[in-house]
Structures are given as structure tokens and as C-alpha cells.
Amino acid sequence: MKMNKKMLAWVIMACLSLSVQAQIAKWLVRPNYDFIEMMDYGLLKVASNGKIGLLNKEGKEILPLEFDSITAFKEERALLFKYGKLYGITDPYGQIFSIEGKEYKLPDGVNRFYSGLLLVRQNNQYFYLNTEGIQVFGPFAEAYPFFDGHALVKSYADYPKNPNETYCDFINTEGIPFVLQDEDKKDISFMSSFHNGRAIIAIKKKFYTIDSETYELTPISIDSTFNKKSLVVSPAKEIPIIKGDEGYLVGAKNGKFIFDQFMRLKYMELLGNEPVISEFPLESERTYTSVFKKLSKDNRYGLVFKGKELLPPQFDEILHLEDDLAIVKSDGKCGVITVDSDNNFLFKLNNNENIGFNHQYYDAKLTTLMPPYIKCTSATVASHSEDCEIQIESRTENENVEGNTLTYNCRLSIPKDLTDTLTAHDYFYSLRYDGLLSVPHKVTISEWYVKYYEVNLSNTNFSISSANDTISVEFDLIKTDVARNDESNYFKNVEVVASNFSEQPILNKITENHYIFQLFGIDQERINFSVRITEIGCPTIEYPFEMVFVKPKPRERNKKTTVTITPIQKKTTPVAKEIILLD
To answer: Signal peptide: which range, if any (predicted)?
Structure first.
């Protein structure tokens, strides 16, 4: 059967479509750390021996391992602590704005910038620092972070002369105090921080809400009449503020207020009204997805990349998966795995040439092509196929700027079911490199069993007198062209088997390669028989023949039966050469 060009092209394309370049898992960060945490801006917080540093998204160090702690990034700034003290401020590029020696401390609950300003405490006074660590506002007797563009502070009336004389105030992000129309700030007895555009303020015992944009005051009333009896007022000129577990409690004659640690209103209960509860948005958690999933077996863990196994179970733990990064623990240390989609490693067996087995074994070369960053000294190849033995001592290495190569000699064992027809056969290999173990990859090579002998019949045409005659057939085993120069006679077993005759042939060995078999009592028109040659450790090769008996016609003078023996030709189908480097 001939294959036309269109069909052949289709087969070749189908074969090529099975050739897959494998994704390479590689270390972005080698497992040298006690702890690794992913942060915003693609940064990695790393820890070793109790000290913390930062790596960028390429795994390069941007802050050395010398800090006690590093806060999360907020507003593109994180805080650095060293020697148990606030040491400085850093940006996502690792630039440090040092405030060492200033002896700044953070007020309770403050660990980040608000509106580009950081509230700090120094010698029981409060200051605000800008994003470069420069002191821009202060001192204040008390202060809170910025909300809605304003910060609640307690300012000094005249600090040098009388540091105990203070008053409540708001400042904006430029440090400018607010202006209260038609009221004197000295009459203010209480103020809260802004939340959702409103704050609580008490002037001359009366409670108001104040707008963060217009500073407009609105009296707080228990009903809509806003008469003298319905207004919410303090029982005394000095408004008591009680600090409790829930925050700050401020009482009134006909209501109460509860504020959080930053003086934001979180609960208001007025006489005859349902309580009003404020919700504070939680710090938004980092959201992320991952191209990885983890897999496990026998308390070891591996990685799946886009639905396909990338690394078999080999790690102590998979700690975190985010984007194209995986934090893993290996031998008690943490590292980061990523995927190199631009490179691949390839296994080439026998230089991708078809393999013809003459005997039980075939010696081939296995070559592994790797990208330049995988050094030969860190790499070894393992066979996962019983019929391929890698000869470790034959290993050779070659490294250059384009890529690195490992080469081994391999001894292949002939597949048990291999025939003399070209057949695809799979081998599996894995690569151990840089402390990682790849999944087994498939290499498909077309193979066939090369006939070492041909069967040559000495007598293919002869006559017999009757069905009772004994038929004797001699044959020789002749070495084929591929074996002409091989003087060895390999141990083999020779059989002759008839497939459609009740009595099996009797075979006699005359010499190493010369045989004779006999058949008795033949009374049928044709007999199919095969000469089977089985070399030790190899499949059987079968040589089929057909023996045809032609009896004389009734009036024919020659009364003998003619016997003709012809080989039976196998039907073969062309096989396109198929090379599958990796699966």
C-alpha cells in the first residue's frame, strides 16, 4: 500500500505535534532561608538566623539581612526596625530613609503611613514624618493618624511658656489647622477623628457633628425637634473620657459615644434611639492567583503547572503559591520556585535515529540538552525504563554560552514484543538538577528487529509418489547483509511449526546453521509452516512458508504429486519516522 504525499505530510505533522518542549522549574531564590514571605510589589521578605531582608521580584537582594523586622508596604512605604528600635523607612526599590538616632517610637496601633504621613512619638511628644523620614509637623501633646485628610491633635497654646496648656485641633495634610467659624477653639472640650467625612465635636457642653470638607457644625439631637431638651449635652464642662477595652467611652446626659483607639466613632447610643454602629474597613488583604497547584504523596510535596505535573513530590512543604512563584521548604530551608517558559531541556536518544536491534542489546547514546544556567556539575540523568541501562561511568559534559550538554552511553534491551516492522517505543528519563528532580519525560524512538538470518530452503520443488511418502525439507540459516562481518554464532533456538497440519514436523539439526525437517502422511492440498528462530533474550522471528500439493490429473501419465514451497510475504504498512523528544 503506497502512501500519497498528502497523507504522508499529515502523518509527519501529527508526529511533530506530539513533540513538546517541557517547562523548566528553576530556583528564583535558592533554599537558603529560614522563612520567606511574599509582599506587595513582587517583593520577598526573607529571614535567616533571626535577621530579615528584602529581595526583588528577580530574587536579587535589595535590603540586606540585618533588620529585626520589616512591616508590610502601605502607600509605597514600609518601616524598618533594627536593634529593637525604629530604624528607617524604605520604598519598594530598597532605598532606605534612615531615622536612626532619633529615638522615634510608634504609638499603639500605628505601623504604617496614613495620607503620606507617619505618626511617631518622641519624648512623650508626637510628630509627623513625611515619606523620606523628615519631621514635618509637631510637636503635639497628643495626636492620631490622618483620616479623611485630617488628623486629630492636641496642640500647645504656647509650648515654651506653658507646656501644660493645650487645646484640641484638626490639621490637614499640609499641617494647616482648621478654622471654626463663629466659635472659639478654647470652647472646644472634645473632638474625635474623622470617619466617613464626619467627626464628633463638643463646644460649650453641646455635641455636634463636623463635616471634613466644609467644617459645618450640625447639633446632635435625640429627635428631629432640635429643641433644648432634645440636644445631646455633656453633664459637665469637662467631658470625662474613659479608656476601656473597647476604646474610649464619652458620656452625655442623654446618650453615649464609644470611639476606637484612633478616636473614630464606632458606636453612638442616644436616648430613645436605636444604636448607631460604624463599620471600619479592614486593611485590604492581598489578593492573588497562582499558575501552580500542589500535589502530595507520602508526606512529600510537588508542583502542578497549568494542570500538568511539573515537579514530582520532593519538598518538605509547599508554603505559598502566588502568580508564577511557589515558596517551598526543602531540607528545612525555604526557597522560591518559578517557571522558565523561554527555555527547555531535551533528551535525545540515539541522535533521534531509528534503532534496529540485531541481538538482545543495542548500545546507544543519550544526550541531555540544558540551558546555560543548569550546570553539568549539578545535573544527573536517571532512566525510568527497565529496558534502558544508563552507564554512569561513560558520562561526558560540555558547557558553552548556548547551552550545556550531558551525554551517556546506554544499553538498550530489545523489547519483548518487537517485530521486524518499524514500531514506536517509549523510554522515560528524568533530570536531577540544582537540587530539583524533574518528572519523567518520554522519548519515543522507532525501532525494529533486524533479521540476522534468512532461511534458505534447499529444495522448493519436488515430487512424491503417495500421501504416505515422507517429505524431507532441508534449509540453511544464512546471515543477512547486516551480519556479514559478524563471525559469531549466537545461541539460538530453531523450531519448525505447522499451523494447519495435525502432525508437527520432526526437526533435526545437521550443523550449526543447517537443518532438515520431515512430514508424514500428508493428505491435503496445502500446509502452512514457519521456521522460528529465537535468540536468547530476544523475541522470536518467524519465517512463514506455504507448501502446496498438486496431484496428477486422472489421465496424466505422471502419477506423482508435485510439491512447491514458497515464502509467505508479510503485508507491511509504511511508518513515518516519529521523534518525540519530550512529553
So the answer is: 1-22
Cell numbers found for residue 166 = 493645650
> Torsions phi, psi of 298, nearest 5?
55, 45
Which residue carries 540544582 as its cell? 434
Share above pLDDT 90 across residues of the chain, in percent, rounded to a whole number = 71
Beta strands in 204-298 (DSSP E): 206-211, 217-219, 241-244, 247-252, 255-259, 265-270, 276-277, 292-297
40-72 core/surface letters (b: 16 or more CB in 10 A; e: else):
eeebbbbbeeeebbbbbeebeebbeeebebbbe
Three-state SS for 462? strand
Question: CA-to-CA distance for 365 and 472, rounded, in angstroms?
Answer: 47
- For residue 17, give the 3-state DSSP assignment: helix
Looking at the whole model, is its pTM more than 0.90? no
DSSP string, 297-355: ETTEEEEEETTEEEEEEEESEEEEEEBTEEEEEETTEEEEEEEESS---EEEEGGG--E
- Asked whether the beta carbons of 79 and 112 are under 8 A apart, the reply is yes
- Cα 55 to chain center, whole Å? 20
Q: How far apart are CA 455 and CA 449, in angstroms?
A: 16
Residues 359 and 434 in one domain: yes
Q: What total of structural domains would you count in the chain?
A: 2
Say how many C-beta atoms besides its own lie within 10 A of residue 482's C-beta: 12
| 561 domain residue, yes or no | yes
- 382 falls within a domain: yes
Tell me the per-residue pLDDT of 378-391, one tens digit each, with 9 for 90 and over: 999 999 999 999 99
Please give the DSSP secondary-structure letter assigned to residue 74.
B
Mean pLDDT by 10 residues, the chain (583 residues): 41 37 86 96 96 97 97 96 95 96 94 97 96 97 97 91 90 94 85 96 94 94 90 89 87 93 95 90 82 95 94 97 96 96 91 92 95 95 96 96 95 92 94 95 93 90 82 92 73 91 90 92 87 91 92 80 89 46 39
Cα separation, 463 vs 434, in Å, equals: 75
Task: Report d(CA 470, CA 466) in Å as an integer.
Answer: 9
pLDDT score of 467? 67
The CATH number given to whatever domain includes residue 423 is 2.60.40.10
